[in-house]
Design brief:
The chain is 43% helix and 11% strand. It is of the alpha/beta class. The chain is globular, with a radius of gyration of 22 Å. The relative contact order is 0.14. The N terminus is likely disordered. Bound molecules: beta-D-glucopyranose. The site of beta-D-glucopyranose has 8 residues, from loops.
Length: 399
Amino acid sequence: MTKTTFILSACFALGATSTLSACSRTETALIDEGEAAAAQETTPPTDTQVQRIQPTPPLQNPRAQTAAQLKTPAQLQQQARPVSQQVSPVPRPERTPFTMRRCMNMGNALEAPNEGDWGYTIRAQDFRAVATAGFDTVRIPIRWDAHTAHRAPYKIDPAFMARVKQVTNDAQAAGLGVIINVHHYEDLMVQTNRHEARYLAIWGQISEEFADAPDNVYFELLNEPTLDMSPARLNALYAKTVPLIRKTNPARKLIMGGNSWNSVEALAGVRFPDDPNIVATFHDYGPHNFTHQGAAWMNPVPPMGRKWGDREDEAELDMTYTAAKAFAKRTGLPILVGEFGVIDTVPQKQRNQWTKRRRMAMEANGYAWCAWDFSGAFKSYDTQAERWLPGAVYALTAR
Ligand code: BGC
């Protein structure tokens, strides 16, 4: 089956830098609207809500109990206030370290309409190959939309959920962390309001299913928001999704990016929640007319033969990572470059050169990354020959 995707808008189809900033410009006007909407949603808890909070249950460990009985200056100050003014001691999860560094996207499998439609079905042995090559995590793009009922309560097909669980378990058995995302939810991008309840129901079910998963199972809220998913709409959606996931997964890392297909520029428009376990993400395919040359799903298809590595290309790279650095400095959020790669019709040497240079820029800034991809159109591995493409692992891991 042919890969159908609507990533055909003019923003993406032209060269990276100019078009991405053009996309960002159109979306900037909407950011204020999003902030106003989000501000309305963050109302302080009412007295009734405060009263409903249960007292902390007694601790099991006697040593911990003794420590807990000692009052900190903040607690003493709180105690001194009249009851009506006391702020409820809502337990706030600790920030846990974001330990993933090197990740591989298992693309073209579970985000196809049906796994296998795009020529790749994930095998447990693939995870072993990924782990042995020195990666610590895999990202599993997933098209939940194709396997979810269209009527409330929007049940996900149990067989599909079981398959996702199986793939996650196989990756974990190979010692890998796992990013679970919502990929290619195309109707949500064009009819956001109509699909909001369904999208939230999908996250409700994923959250319950993976509530007990280890910390290195990460949730990524939405791959590459675009089209009608304006920054304002995206922020409003995030503002509903995060508290929903937090009901069952209080401290899991949540990965969130901006519009324009997760461009670096769009990060500035994201209203990140006040939550200690958030990771910001962006995708790096710059310049598109190099990384996507000949990509049949682009319109127009960028011509083949574009080489990479001159001074202009270096300047483009510099612009991307200067933008990322400014964002990281302002927010202090950990960063994951969730997709980067070059289509496999480009000579492997050029692909390796681009990949190594981008990867080094990410690592120099302390960002985690996830290469696109294992066995799809941007492949690093040959599943027929059961071997990595020449130089692919070295470009990514220096091993
Ligand atoms: C899309 C893939 C595409 C890749 C590179 C991903 O986000 O899901 O279908 O091949 O980007 O364009």
